[in-house]
Amino acid sequence: MTIAVTGATGQLGRLVVETLKTKAAPEGLIALARNPDKAADLGVPVRAFDYDAPETLAASLGGVETLLLISGSEVGRRVPQHAAVIEAAKEAGVKHIVYTSLLNAPNSTLGLALEHVETEKLLAASGIGHTVLRNGWYTENYTMGLPAALEHNALIGAAGDGRISSATRQDYADAAAAVLLDTGLQGKTYELSGDDSYTLTDLAATLSAQAGRDIPYVDMPEPDYAAALTSAGLPAELAGLLAHCDVEASKGALFDDGTQLSTLIGRPTTPLASAVATAIG
């Protein structure tokens, strides 16, 4: 079986390729990347694959049986990009597509959800066998801000007391690899989230314990949090998106008490304390 991974130079895609390499022969894997030069170190065949160049996609999928379609990073552009990939997969004779969607996408209040729902509809109408991995929040979405929290002696956010059932990118990469390699796991929709949930106050307490000093959580109004993220160097659109997601988290949008992720990967999801330790070195 030939497996191809889109977005292979991205944070999730690279982990999926590296995980697959430990379980399957590299010659059976293909890395698809907008800039193939950035994938040269992956140690597998690489093909150019630009979501915004639809006329080139089918040729890059030649001989591919199973495709991991990692959702595009350009919010607002995902539906046409994903539609182009799905059409190219049909033309190339791809037999199965695995897609990274969003936790509880049809009922989610996150602004990110709509494009995932539309993509799931495109897959259902495509006639191609498909599996949907509805990934929950990445723990790294929060732990990437911990060095700044240490520097400023405060962890900021807008999630209130909302509980967050996140997992690390490696957890989600392991789940994707499991589904790509086992046809018995395909053809389903999985709601994927961490085994345990936490509040941002809990995250601050975990950080404090590891740092040996008190780092409090400071809850902020959505506009103030977005402005703080922008001043820290994030693009305004991304800052606004993260602030919105935090507010929705305060209402339960990032919480899930299922265990489908740990069941898929055959181990508990990565504990919060381990993810914090990795983030602060």
TrEMBL record:
Q: Where is the NAD(P)-binding domain?
A: 7-182
One Pfam family from the record: NAD_binding_10
Domain of life assignment: Bacteria
Q: Which InterPro entries match?
A: NAD(P)-bd_dom (IPR016040), NAD(P)-bd_dom_sf (IPR036291), NmrA-type_oxidoreductase (IPR052718)
Signal peptide segment: none
Return the Gene3D superfamilies for the record: NAD(P)-binding Rossmann-like Domain, UDP-galactose 4-epimerase, domain 1
Question: What name is this protein filed under?
Answer: NAD(P)H-binding protein
